Amino acid sequence: MERWEAAGIQRTSTLRSCKLTFYDNNMTIKYMLFSYPNCAECDRLKQCLKETDIDGEEYNLILKESKLKIREFIKVIKRDIKGAIIIPTLVLQDGEEVVAVLNNREELEKWLKSKD
After folding, report:
1. Which of 2, 62, 79, 102 has the most CB atoms in a 10 Å sphere around its CB?
2. Parent domain of 83
3. What pLDDT score was predicted for residue 22?
4. Mean pLDDT of the chain, nearest integer
């Protein structure tokens, strides 16, 4: 078993377009999606990601390893009015640089359109 499988990380392969395809020769975008099972908004965002050409990983926040991973982004993650982390959280990176933190399908579609 691969290390990422043991940590509960689901890898996704090259994907297709969520109404848009992301192409930028100057950027190599990868995503990390932090979500919970049985979360409707998480499922909507996952479906959108499956329709894009962005590669990435999914982290199930039920697992300890995923909770530790999300802490790496604690300074950039969005929170609600009570201070709780908004789930799903989609972190888009170009190399080590965080280029966007999004929380739903609409935000992802808007971000993709802005890169057109």
Report:
1. 102
2. 3-114
3. 47
4. 82
Contact between 88 and 34 under an 8 Å Cβ cutoff? The reply is: yes
CATH of residue 89's domain is 3.40.30.10
92 Cα distance to chain centroid? 6
pTM summary value: 0.77
Residue 109 in contact with residue 99, Cβ under 8 Å? no
**107 three-state secondary structure:** helix
Q: Which residues pair with residue 58 across a beta bridge?
A: 10, 33
Amino acid at the residue 5: E
Which string of DSSP letters, residue by residue, matches 8-51?
TEEEE-S---SSS----TT--EEEEEEE-TT-HHHHHHHHHHHT
